[in-house]
Amino acid sequence: MDATQLAQVEQLANQLYAGGPGIAEAQSRLLSLQQSADNIPTCQYILNNSTNNYALLVASNSLSQLITSHWNNFTVQQRIDLRNYVLTYLAEKGSTIDNFVLTSVIKLVCRITKLGWFDDVTHRELPDQVKRFLEATVDHCVIGLKILNQLVDELNIPTVGRTLTAHRKSAVSFRDTSLKKVFELGLATLDQLKQNAIQGTPRQIQDLGLQSLSLVVRCLGFDFIGTNPDESTEDVGTIQIPMSWRALIMSKANMEVLFDFYKNTEPPRSNKAMEAIILLSSTRRSLFSTDKDRTVFTDRLMAEMAELMRNKTGLHHGENYHEFCRLLGRIKANFQLTEFVKYSGFVEWLRYAADFTVTSIENWQWSKNSIHYLLAMWVRLVSAVPYVRADTGEQGFTKTFEKQVSRVVECYLKSMLASVETVVNDLDGEDDPLDDDGSLKEQLEKLPTLCRFLYEGAGKMILDHFDTIKVRYQQLVNGGSTSPNDIKICEGKLSWLVYIIGSIIGGHSWNQSSFEDGSELIDGQLSRRVFQLSQLTDLRILHTNGQGKCDMKLELAYLYYLDNFRRVYMFCWDSTQTTRSVMGGAEGPSTKAKIYQRMFECMEMGNNTQVTNLIINKVGNNLKFWPNEVEIIGQTLDLFLDMSQGYSSSKLLLTLDSVKFLLNNHNVDHFPFLKNPANIRHRTTFHATLTRLLFTFSSEEMPMTFEKFLEPTLTTLTQLGQLGDNELRSEGAKWPLIGVLRDLRGIASSLHNKRTYLSLFEALHPNHFAVFIRIAELWFDTPEVTTSLLKFLNEFVHNKANRVSFDQSSPNGILLFRNTSSILCGYGQQQLKISGEVIGANEIYKKRYKGFSLMLDTLFSALTGNYVCFGVFSLYNDPALDNSLNTALEVVLSIPIEGMISFPKLSKSAFNFLETLFKSHLSTVLKKDSGTFSRVMTCIHEGLQSSDATLSSTCATTIDNLSTFYFVNIGKQKPEVQLLNDHLAQQPNLFSGLTSTLFNLLLFGPAGNHWAIMKPMLALMLCNEQSFTGYKDQLMSTQTADNQLKLNDAFTKLLSDVNRNLESTNRDRFTQKLTAFRVAARGFLTL
């Protein structure tokens, strides 16, 4: 490279990163630097001579990619030289280049170190060599800390393209030899900063502190035992710190330095220090050799936390506050309450913790994303109380603990109720906590344990608030409102109370202690209030004909409560009513049954059946009066679906007049939500639930006939079928079409055996399939209609649980496929006619590819359903099979391969179809002209190289089907064999190309997919041995003389004891040898 070429690279880099015209071309040309190891000197030239930061970034990124991809191309000495070159570059120019370039160069040296970790001891000495940076200028010290930070990350995080085994081998070696040194360097730098032993500008001192703290955090957060923790969660598990670190962890000075940094610095250093403290507090218990050591550590931690809470040090910063809440949430996870109680200041600590929690909850606007951590701490403490002896710890601990828990519960309740007025009156412009579903559910999950700890007091407090607000609410709805916000405030407060009661009910535990504490009586009182309030709001809706609706949030709270009530107290009555005495005496009520009975008696709302009827009435009212609220409709139908699960629950529901009403009147007239296009998906759930209920029993026991149930749907279908083409295609018919197809899909999804499926088949065939065919042909260009049609058809032809099973003499299986073929061909052929139309990239999937995907899925289900003898079609010259296969194949070939791979659902559908086509209907492909056959094989070849392991596996199976057919039938006088030979004559390199691709994927591809691609390799080698020999010779020609000897030996071992057949034992033996071959070859092969 010369100065002119360097200037071109700098110009391209500016175009790429600074924006402007030509970005795509610039990216393409710059990516060429990453294609060959020959470009490494070019990248070094750029680093040495360019002052353009973007060009430097391109060079360092390219070097990193080249090193990773072509690692085996370098000798050990070349790798060391390259590493030393980068370190020298950092030492000489690291302080003058921009931070983003510096980060990229540091990543490069750490990547080299990781890949060469076992090559030479020089690589493993990097942590010691970085000390030279730490002992030089302050800027170099910052660079050294950044190198160590990146090194820990590099050794901790798996590298793409390397096996997990190789990664863990490097990580374990680093953990055992270097990580402790790195951790000590971070702590030592922090101690120097604390002692003001490093002189520098304020900015330099801040950078040193942040980098040192980050290093400590990374070391403590290292994956010590290979558990691959989920990085997307903030929760910290137990830190499995090695035993050799014990002195560092137990050191008082090390804990003090972290707390000092928290107290005396600002974010981001202070919150990073708190993050390190969190990790330190999560140390495994077994690290401490004696109880005394653990107690000393715990007491020190508790004392520091107490001081922070007493002085509120740093907690005015949001970042610090959040991290401190995380610390409190974690404190009980790795230590027992017994150990905390023994701390001499635990009672005082409890008061500070309660004060902090109360203050945080009262200021919910500022702390709503952190409250659940505080509640989690109290939950863990409360859960551990039964395991603490009464005489443990300070005197009065128990009473103090109960008092503080009561304070927290009372504060939470009052603060959340008070938040309603703040939100409604828009005092601070705050968002409503009830609208933040994630945070709300996190908090509600913690409440049952806290409230049930002192349930009598908590229950009385909730009841008092509930009764007071309910009375006020009744006065307002009866005409006593003086402000438009009064009712809204009451409904908001009631929403909170219903949510809280729902969480408490859902947290009921069926352990032995709950059998004796009488908590079911409080459950009954709370539940009675919710049901009575629900009846009050529903009566208001009924009396005003849907005009007097309550706030939507209150309705959602009802549904949350009912779902929890259902899980705990409904539909278990029969299974718990009686139990036989141990001596074989008469049956009597079980303990659980007695609890149920007491709870329902306390509710005073009737028995189990009557309460169930109240819930179903609620479901019916929601479906009738909330047609435009999609969220309410969705959750209501989910509740109804959950209630219909199981035999006993379905049996109970079908005794209710309200359910019978739903079964007899599931139409738009009674339930207007069915005509709202926004609820179109919920129609499927609604009809699936009703069908599930109806088919719970045998035909004789059903409360109504299936034909009667289907009558509204079939009537609509008949009316649509009587329309002319123009009327059927009109907008007036569009939504009725979509609705009836969605209904049918829901009905079909709940048919799980031969009897129920046959009932629907006989209802639809032969009278209504004609309208389905017309819909496919007339509405082919309207995704809303075709999606509903194809999803129903896909469900209908899917033979799940072997439900599509007809009598031996029945033609129904053939008739079903013929009609399916007509529908799919009608849709597919019409779509192919307009395939030349240009559709924007943002809409192509919705308008075309989604329909193609559903069409291919439907045909795949029909072809693999095992209810059709496909030989009948050719025997009687019926074109249905050929038409559907040819249309589907045309559809697949009409999709550009790039577009197909870009959409996972589409590619899965297409390649599943091709796999079935090559397995059972290969003649359809072979009868095509060689150009079409070549396009199909090109498509499969591209899919084979996909990064999606499932897709690649499917294509490999397709290739195995073809090669197995050819090997088994080679030399036979079959028309299909002759056709295949003709295609191979036009494509003589077909098998050799596939063989090369498969071996390249095996040797150089990702580790997770090599099992799938092994399957066709034996068949390919047997049906075309020249392709294997050619690949072997080509690969060996790219290697050094030494590697050629190793590779030849590996190939010899691969072929030993392999027979010329495709028996399963021979396939398995060859697969095992391929695995050994892969492991051996990847150790020395160069690209």
What does this structure look like?
- With 1087 residues, this protein is mostly helical.
- The chain is built from 56 helices and two strands.
- Strands 1-2 form a two-stranded antiparallel ribbon.
- Strand 1 and strand 2 form a beta hairpin.
- Helix 40 packs antiparallel against helix 41.
- The radius of gyration is 36 Å and the shape is flat.
- 41% of the residues are buried.
- About 1% of the residues have low confidence.
Summarize the structure.
By secondary structure, the chain is mainly α.
Extract low-pLDDT stretches. Answer: 573-586
Alpha-carbon distance between the two ends: 23 Å
Give the strand order, joined by hyphens, for the main sheet.
1-2
Shape: flat
Beta-strand fraction estimate = under 5%
Number of helices: 56
Strand count = 2
- The amount of helix comes to over 70%
What order do the helices and strands come in, and which of them pair?
Layout: H1 3-18, H2 23-31, H3 40-49, H4 53-69, H5 76-93, H6 99-115, H7 121-124, H8 126-129, H9 131-134, H10 138-156, H11 164-194, H12 202-220, H13 246-250, H14 252-264, H15 269-281, H16 291-311, H17 318-330, H18 337-341, H19 346-362, H20 364-367, H21 371-384, H22 397-424, H23 437-453, H24 455-480, H25 484-506, H26 519-543, H27 552-569, H28 573-576, E1 578-580, E2 587-589, H29 591-603, H30 608-625, H31 630-643, H32 647-653, H33 657-664, H34 680-694, H35 706-721, H36 725-728, H37 731-749, H38 754-764, H39 769-778, H40 783-797, H41 812-833, H42 844-863, H43 871-875, H44 880-893, H45 897-902, H46 904-920, H47 922-926, H48 930-944, H49 949-969, H50 975-986, H51 990-1004, H52 1010-1014, H53 1017-1023, H54 1025-1037, H55 1041-1055, H56 1064-1082
Antiparallel strand pairs: 1-2
Helix pairs in contact: 1-2, 3-4, 4-6, 5-6, 6-10, 10-11, 10-12, 11-12, 11-14, 12-15, 14-15, 14-16, 15-17, 16-19, 17-21, 19-22, 21-23, 22-23, 22-24, 22-25, 23-24, 23-25, 24-25, 24-26, 25-26, 25-27, 26-29, 26-30, 27-31, 30-31, 30-33, 31-34, 34-37, 35-37, 35-38, 37-40, 39-41, 40-41, 40-42, 41-42, ...
